[in-house]
Design brief:
Blueprint (H helix, E strand, L loop, with lengths): L3 H16 L5 H20 L9 H13 L4 H20 L26 H9 L11 H14 L3 H5 L6 E2 L4 E5 L5 E5 L2 H18 L19 H14 L8 H14 L4 H8 L4 H4 L3 H15 L4
Antiparallel strand pairs: 1-2, 2-3
Helix pairs in contact: 1-2, 2-4, 3-4, 5-6, 6-8, 6-10
């Protein structure tokens, strides 16, 4: 648990973001998560707020690089840490900002990690290999199926509510970045397993804290993003998948498999909830590779 000496200044900073800088609830939550991780790191090293050195801050960022955090998330972490220490200097808690010379990491131009269709199917079936007497394999199966069927972000999944499901019509209402909402088709398998989970397991987990959230933990509260991440990693190991994957891998695989199957870019953009088609075009390299392979295989002069 985060010590009180850290917790109080963190809450003061978050109130500053919401009240004085008018940050949205989602952005404030992201800053909270990033800074809690940062302060836990300093707490583990027995650093007082006034004793944090520039080398400590750089060591933390290096650790984030080491665990493979995406460039956009790294940039947000850097921004949060710099703003946090700037606030502490303004409030005269610190004399100087140890993150002054911390630079934003350059946004990498990378190809997203994508699972093959075979690996995806192995992963989707992994929960069924668990002991059937286990409690949560039904929930976990529904989570994996829903991630792959819809391509939703993990933040969108954890906030999904029962009232957002229109399974009779084969759709789910998803609330994405910037409070944008979209209707996403949900495949038959995801509908089947999600419905089974809701009817057979969720009903036994609900408490006053459950509200209308679909995917719950053992205490009846909505699953966290880290909880979903751990579920995906657990079943990736069980499925014999050696590459590093995350819930976002399902989103990449969803988009890539649609494009390989012949879906047009605009439709995929709509389903992913991208405001710009430029964002979606990162997946077209795989589509082009697929087309090139088809040409090489079937054209007489390929």
């Amino acid at each position: 648990m985060l010590d009180d000496r850290y917790r109080s200044v963190l809450e003061g900073f978050l109130n500053h973001l919401r009240i004085e800088r008018n940050f949205s609830e989602n952005t404030s939550l992201s800053y909270r998560n990033d800074l809690e991780r940062y302060l836990f790191f300093m707490q583990d090293r027995k650093r007082e707020l006034t004793g944090i050195l520039p080398s400590d801050v750089q060591e933390f960022i290096t650790e984030l690089y080491r665990i493979g955090l995406e460039a956009s998330s790294l940039a947000r972490n850097v921004s949060a840490i710099r703003s946090f220490h700037k606030f502490l200097v303004r409030e005269r808690i610190l004399e100087s900002n140890p993150a002054d010379n911390l630079h934003q990491p350059k946004k990498a131009h990378y190809l997203p990690a994508v699972l093959s269709t075979d690996a995806t199917l192995r992963l989707l079936d992994a929960p069924l290999r668990q002991d059937p007497r286990g409690t949560f394999h039904l929930r976990d199966k529904a989570i994996l199926e829903f991630l792959y069927a819809t391509g939703v972000r993990v933040s969108e999944l954890v906030n999904l509510r029962q009232q957002n499901l229109y399974f009779d019509s084969g759709f789910a209402r998803i609330f994405g970045k910037g409070s944008r909402e979209r209707l996403v088709p949900v495949g038959r398998s995801a509908i089947e397993w999600t419905t089974r989970y809701v009817n057979e397991l969720r009903i036994t987990l609900t408490t006053r804290d459950s509200e209308d959230y679909i995917f719950l933990n053992a205490r009846g509260k909505k699953l966290s993003r880290m909880g979903i991440f751990n579920i995906v990693r657990q079943y990736a190991v069980l499925a014999g998948i050696e590459k590093e994957i995350s819930p976002h891998t399902f989103r990449h695989s969803f988009a890539t498999h649609l494009l390989e199957g012949g879906a047009d870019l605009r439709s995929v953009q709509e389903m992913l909830g991208h405001s710009s088609i430029t964002t979606t075009q990162i997946y077209t390299h795989i589509d082009r590779s697929f087309i090139k392979e088809v040409h090489r295989t079937f054209h007489p002069r390929g």
